[in-house]
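Students often ask why inverse folding is considered easier than folding. One informal answer: many sequences map to the same fold, so there is more than one right answer. In these notes we will look at a single instance of the problem. The structure comes first.
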């Protein structure tokens, strides 16, 4: 009898993980073009005192002109690989930590949920960081093509192989520190604000506990998470995109060096490059997921 209960529980747990992974991959596919636009905006004008301002519309037009409609999905495969691990690990860790701290008939405070969500995101991001690195570099490669340069990689497998050969296995975790910081802030902002926003919407009779409340809460939590995490996201993108030259030198020594150089050269507002595409992606991502 106990064995049967254990097997049923294990089967349900496995099914939940599989459904979570597939839902995350569907959400990532649906919103990926927005993520590509965000990355291109974050890399635009990097370390340049004066550069021509660029908008999301111009980025899209440039991608469509040079690569066609499929160019909007450059780097999708490593992004899907990332979410095969990132989202299930995040959800499983969150539920494990939550259930370990309080009994089933109790609820956690908002601050506790935010901290647990942040920790869960950090653990998942450490595991998924190599796939994130490859995604960022493949997205950046499409920008190199538009500049008449040869792309560094011809696919995700080629990217993994070349990174390991030139930068070592540790190179797959380049930019992990700002990536982990971003993961903590995103998960903390999403969980805390979503819970608060949904309660506010329902208690003030703006909407019932239905799809409308979910949509409004997703938009507000996406805004909160974007505001908190955008600076770390910009630093993460730039750290991940940089590759060592023939002499083994890199543009940035570490995350702090990247932060200082970005602010010194481009100003403080550069830390919020790609803000609106990031927000536009987080809301629908939560909704689809």
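Output (designed amino acids):
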């Amino acid at each position: 009898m106990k064995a049967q209960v254990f097997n049923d529980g294990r089967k349900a747990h496995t099914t939940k993980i599989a459904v979570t992974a597939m839902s995350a991959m569907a959400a990532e596919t649906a919103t990926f073009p927005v993520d590509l636009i965000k990355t291109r905006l974050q890399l635009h004008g990097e370390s340049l005192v004066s550069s021509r301002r660029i908008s999301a519309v111009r980025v899209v037009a440039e991608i469509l002109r040079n690569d066609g409609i499929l160019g909007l999905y450059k780097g999708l495969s490593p992004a899907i690989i990332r979410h095969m691990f990132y989202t299930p690990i995040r959800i499983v860790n969150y539920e494990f930590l939550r259930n370990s701290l309080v009994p089933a008939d109790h609820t956690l405070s908002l601050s506790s949920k935010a901290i647990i969500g942040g920790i869960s995101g950090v653990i998942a991001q450490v595991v998924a960081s190599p796939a994130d690195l490859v995604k960022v570099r493949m997205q950046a490669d499409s920008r190199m093509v538009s500049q008449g340069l040869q792309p560094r990689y011809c696919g995700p497998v080629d990217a993994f192989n070349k990174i390991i050969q030139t930068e070592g296995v540790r190179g797959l975790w380049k930019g992990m520190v700002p990536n982990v910081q971003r993961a903590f802030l995103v998960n903390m902002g999403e969980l805390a604000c979503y819970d608060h926003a949904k309660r506010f919407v329902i208690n003030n009779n703006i909407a019932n506990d239905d799809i409308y409340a979910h949509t409004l809460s997703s938009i507000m939590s996406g805004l909160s998470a974007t505001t908190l995490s955008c600076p770390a996201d910009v630093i993460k993108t730039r750290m991940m995109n940089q590759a060592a030259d023939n002499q083994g030198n890199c543009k940035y020594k570490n995350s702090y060096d990247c932060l200082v150089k970005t602010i010194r050269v481009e100003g403080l507002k550069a830390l919020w490059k790609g803000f609106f595409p990031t927000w536009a992606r987080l809301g629908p991502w939560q909704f689809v997921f």
